[in-house]
Write a structure and sequence with these properties.
- The chain has 342 residues and is α/β, with parallel strands linked by helices.
- The protein has 2 domains: 128 residues, Rossmann fold, CATH 3.40.50.2300; 189 residues, Methylesterase CheB, C-terminal domain (Rossmann fold, 3-Layer(aba) Sandwich), CATH 3.40.50.
- The protein contains 12 helices and 14 strands.
- The strands form 3 sheets. Strands 8-9-7-6-12-13-14 form a 7-stranded parallel β-sheet, sandwiched between helices. Strands 2-1-3-4-5 form a 5-stranded parallel β-sheet, sandwiched between helices. A two-stranded antiparallel ribbon has the order 10-11.
- Helix 3 packs parallel to helix 4, helix 8 packs parallel to helix 9 and helix 9 crosses helix 10.
- The radius of gyration is 20 Å and the shape is globular.
């Protein structure tokens, strides 16, 4: 039975979240908290498996409470966010601190919107209960490395725990990377722009949300928009694909990887970071068959060792590395191919 601590300043939200959790059958609410001041104490007293944590709370906001929890009593956390500019920025900050995932609170409270919210929340609590939490590896200062000239294109897939892993990766790359990059991070509509902005702050790539017809550019990383599949239209241009969810996600990295293999062939370098499920496995196999290379994040740093493991078990991964060392393998692969990255 998964023990859940519900933290929200709204009496209504605490009640409806608690009702949904208790009705799930495999989880139970062990306590509720109305403000950030009480979170750490309740975590220590109740030892929950998962916390649902509101961002906007009185006296001490959710980001401060999250930082305290991750420092003193690392516990899987699912954030509850508002779909506003400030809310999306705070959500990205929470994911970088160590929150496992998040849900967007509905802007209008109806029976239908609450049902949709809880249909999303309950599976995320189950995933969070299995996740690896902690402070994570220290990456120290940015290594002294030179960006390499390469004709390859870097494709990255990530899901649960991905924003934190992506930030670590981008902070360890050399400044001013010179290869094109395209990223699929499983994320709902409205949040990818904030993620792109935060990744751009690392200084390794220019980063922005992809737009239809975007061309690849050296040093530019295009991030798939939430709710839209992104794929290659040609070796130099991307487009959106409005097909239904694939493997339960949209955007789906398989579209990106498969189309990259088709149009780029052995110029394709795929990277699979932390995430639940099997997305990117079929695409990774396509890259391998086209003569390209695929690297994965190793289990020791994955929040959820799902996507990299699936691709590895399918024989589609050339090597796995902790996320704070993955940049070394990527730079070697960009410069010298498979043997250099091994």
């Amino acid at each position: 039975m998964i023990k859940v601590l519900v933290v929200d300043d709204s009496i209504f939200m605490r009640r409806v979240i608690s009702d949904a959790v208790n009705a799930a059958g495999d989880m139970v609410v062990v306590g509720t908290v109305a403000n950030g001041d009480e979170v750490l104490k309740q975590v220590r007293d109740l030892n929950p498996d998962v916390i649902t944590l509101d961002i906007e709370m009185p006296r001490k906001n959710g980001l401060i409470a999250l930082q305290e929890v991750m420092t003193d009593c690392p516990t899987p956390v699912v954030m509850c966010s508002t779909l506003t500019a400030s809310g999306t920025q705070a959500t990205m900050a929470a994911l970088e601190i160590g929150a496992i995932d998040f849900i967007a609170k509905p802007t209008q409270i109806t029976a239908e919107t609450m049902k949709l919210t809880f249909n999303e929340l309950i599976p995320k609590i189950r995933t969070a209960a299995k996740a690896r939490v902690g402070r994570g590896p220290s990456i120290g200062s940015r290594p002294v490395m030179k960006a390499v000239n390469s004709n390859k294109v870097l494709l990255i897939a990530s899901s649960t725990g991905g924003p934190k892993a992506l930030m670590t990766l981008f902070e360890t790359f050399p400044k001013d990377m010179t290869v094109p990059c395209v990223i699929v991070q499983h994320m709902p509509v409205g949040f990818t722009k904030s993620l792109a902005h935060r990744l751009a702050g690392a200084g390794s790539f220019k980063v922005r949300e992809a737009e239809p017809g975007d061309k690849l550019e050296p040093g530019l990383a295009l991030l798939a928009q939430g709710g839209k599949h992104l794929e290659f239209e040609s070796a130099s241009r991307v487009r959106f694909n409005d097909a239904p969810e694939r493997l339960g996600v949209k955007p789906c990295a398989d579209y990106l990887f498969e189309s990259g293999a088709k149009h780029l062939g052995d110029r394709t370098l795929g990277v699979i970071l932390t995430g639940m499920g099997k997305d990117a496995t079929h695409g990774a196999l396509a890259i391998k068959q086209a003569g390209g290379m695929v690297l994965g994040e190793s289990a020791e740093t994955c929040t959820v060792y799902g996507m990299p493991r699936s691709a590895k078990e399918a024989g589609a991964v050339d090597g796995e590395f902790p996320v704070h060392e993955l940049h070394l393998a990527i730079m070697a692969a960009l410069q010298g191919g498979k043997r250099a990255a091994a």
